[in-house]
Amino acid sequence: MFLEKAKTGSPIWNAILKTLDVLEDEFAYKIGDGDTNMWFHPWIVEHPLINVVQNISPNHLCIKIKDIWDNGESIIAELNLPLSSEIAATIQELKPTIITSFACTWVWKDKLNGEYTTKGAYY
User: Domain segments of the chain: what residues?
Assistant: First the structure.
């Protein structure tokens, strides 16, 4: 999710990578202003959609997350995107609030404010 993991490295780096494997399941993608490309970030599934969806039209590659909703309702069906029914249903179930005051970002799942603390990781 965050880093391409090299197969070899120093013992310290390998320990960091092991920690990332544990931690990355605890992060979620928070939609802020929606000004993030929908294809190149793992915002709805574990990997960027560009890696799991085939036959994407070049015209669709510029679609941003905020472009797939109109007044809080999904318009994913109207966009004729080559999404699986499962991914399309997951997107349609979302009811994001687009907040223009901050960008889309990764947040710590277990905290409402999204901030990671070591104490929060243990409780």
Answer: 27-108+115-122
